[in-house]
Inverse folding.
C-alpha cells in the first residue's frame, strides 16, 4: 500500500475535490438569462411584477407539482420557511416542539424564534428520528414535531405520522437538505401538515439563499401567506377569508422575482441532478462495500434516497477523526456532519442563550427546561463516528475514481 499523504506520501489528487453545491455548480446562461429578463422587465417584486406570470408564482406552481401538494410559497430562506410553517400551524408561546437530535441548528432555532421550546428526540441508525422514541418526549405542552430527512435520506414518515396522530401532534417537515427525497414514492414534504425547503448554497437546488413552504391545508397556506407578507393576503381569490377577522400582524419574508427567476431554472434541473447523484452514489457504495469495519448509513428506501451524500461510520471517534484528516491530506474533502455533535450540544441551544436576557421562551413553563449531554444516547454515540462527502452531478469519472481510491487507501491503513 502506498504511503498516506498525511504521513508524507503522494496525495491521490493534486487539487482539492470539494463537492458541496449540487445545483450551484450547474449555473450557466439559463440562470443568467432568467435574472436578465427580470431586470429588463424592471420587475423585481412579486406583487408588482410586469412579467406574467411572475417568476415566484411560477416557481411555486412548479414546486407544488414536484412535491405533490396543493400549495407552495416562496420565502427568503429555509429558516424563514420553518418559522413561517410554525406560525401557519399556530405554534408559539406555551408550546413545546419535538426536534430530532441530529439536525442543523436552524430546526431548533426557528422553534425558539417562534416563542416555543424545542425538546429533543433520539434518532436510530439512519440518523433520522426514531419513531419509537416520540412518545417518550411528549407532555401536555407538546404540540408539534419537526421531521428532518438528513442528507437526502427519507424519514420513516409512515410510522412518524401514526405516532403523531396518537399524540395529537402537528407534523412540520424540515426538508431543507433533501428536496426530492421520498418514501414509498411519496415525497418528503407531502407527508406532514406543512413543510419547509431551503435553497441556500449547499442545498440540492440553490438561489444563493431562499426557501419555500408547502402544504395541502388551505387554512395553513393562508396563514403562511399572511405571516410572510405583513398579514396581507393579496391573491386571495378563491379563498373564503375575512380580512376583518382573519388578519394578524405578520413579517416580511417575501421572495424577490430575481430569486424566483433562478429558482424556476434550478427546479427544471432537479430531476437531472437527482438521477446523476444517485448514479454516482451507487458506484461509490458498490466499490466501497467490501471494506471491513466501514459501514454505510442505513437508508430505509433506496428508491427514495436522492444520493446527495455518502455517509459512513467508522468504529471509533478517533478513527473517524483520523480518516477525515487523512482524506483531506489526499485532497478529498470528507467531514463529520455537525462536528459530530447532536444539535442540542451546540452551545447556544445547550445553554439556552437567546437574543435578550429575559430568558423567554425557556422560562415559560412550571418546570425548568434542562438539556443534558446524554439525553439522546444513540445520537451521542453515532454522530462522532460519521464521515461523509457530498455528491455532485458535476463530478467527473476521475473524481469518482479518486474518492474510491482515497477511501480504500486510508481504510487499508487504519481499519
Ligand atoms: C440548511 C438547513 C436549514 C436552514 O436553511 P437556510 O436556507 O440556510 O436558512 C434548516 N434546516 C436544515 C435541516 C438545514 O439543512
Amino acid at each position: 500500500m502506498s504511503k498516506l499523504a498525511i504521513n508524507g506520501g503522494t496525495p491521490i489528487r493534486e487539487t482539492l475535490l470539494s463537492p458541496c453545491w449540487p445545483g450551484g455548480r450547474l449555473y450557466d446562461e439559463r440562470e443568467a438569462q432568467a435574472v436578465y429578463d427580470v431586470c429588463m422587465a424592471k420587475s423585481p417584486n412579486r406583487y408588482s411584477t410586469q412579467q406574467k406570470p411572475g417568476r415566484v408564482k411560477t416557481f411555486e406552481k412548479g414546486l407544488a407539482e414536484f412535491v405533490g401538494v396543493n400549495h407552495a410559497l416562496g420565502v427568503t430562506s429555509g429558516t424563514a420557511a420553518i418559522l413561517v410553517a410554525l406560525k401557519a400551524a399556530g405554534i408559539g408561546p406555551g408550546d413545546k416542539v419535538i426536534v430530532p437530535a441530529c439536525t442543523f441548528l436552524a430546526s431548533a432555532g426557528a422553534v425558539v424564534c417562534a416563542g416555543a421550546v424545542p425538546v429533543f428526540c433520539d434518532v436510530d441508525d439512519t440518523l433520522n428520528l426514531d419513531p419509537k422514541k416520540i412518545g417518550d418526549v411528549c407532555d401536555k405542552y407538546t404540540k408539534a414535531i419537526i421531521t428532518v430527512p438528513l442528507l437526502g435520506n427519507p424519514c420513516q414518515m409512515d410510522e412518524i405520522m401514526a405516532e403523531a396522530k396518537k399524540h395529537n401532534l402537528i407534523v412540520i417537515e424540515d426538508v431543507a437538505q433533501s428536496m426530492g427525497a421520498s418514501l414509498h414514492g411519496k415525497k418528503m414534504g407531502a407527508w406532514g401538515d406543512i413543510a419547509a425547503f431551503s435553497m441556500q448554497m449547499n442545498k440540492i437546488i440553490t438561489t444563493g439563499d431562499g426557501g419555500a413552504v408547502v402544504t395541502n391545508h388551505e387554512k395553513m397556506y393562508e396563514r403562511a401567506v399572511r405571516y410572510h407578507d405583513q398579514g396581507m393576503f393579496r391573491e386571495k381569490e378563491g379563498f373564503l377569508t375575512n380580512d376583518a377577522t382573519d388578519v394578524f400582524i405578520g413579517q416580511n419574508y417575501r421572495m424577490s422575482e430575481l430569486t424566483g427567476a433562478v429558482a424556476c431554472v434550478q427546479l427544471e434541473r432537479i430531476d437531472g441532478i437527482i438521477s446523476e447523484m444517485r448514479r454516482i452514489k451507487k458506484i461509490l457504495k458498490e466499490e466501497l462495500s467490501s471494506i471491513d469495519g466501514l459501514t454505510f448509513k442505513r437508508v430505509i428506501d433506496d428508491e427514495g434516497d436522492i444520493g446527495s451524500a455518502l455517509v459512513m461510520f467508522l468504529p471509533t471517534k478517533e478513527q473517524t477523526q483520523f480518516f477525515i484528516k487523512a482524506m483531506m491530506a489526499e485532497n478529498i474533502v470528507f467531514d463529520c456532519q455537525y462536528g459530530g455533535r447532536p444539535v442540542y450540544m451546540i452551545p447556544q441551544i445547550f445553554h439556552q442563550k437567546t437574543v435578550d436576557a429575559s430568558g423567554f421562551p425557556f422560562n415559560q413553563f412550571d418546570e425548568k427546561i434542562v438539556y443534558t449531554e446524554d439525553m439522546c444516547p444513540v445520537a451521542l454515540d453515532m454522530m462522532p463516528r460519521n464521515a461523509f462527502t457530498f455528491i455532485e452531478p458535476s463530478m467527473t469519472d476521475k473524481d469518482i475514481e479518486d474518492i474510491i481510491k482515497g477511501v480504500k487507501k486510508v481504510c487499508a491503513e487504519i481499519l
Notes: The chain has eleven helices and twelve strands. Residues 77-79, 103-104, 106-107, 148, 174, 176-177, 198, 200, 209, 211 surround pyridoxal-5'-phosphate (CB under 6 Å). The mean pLDDT is 96.
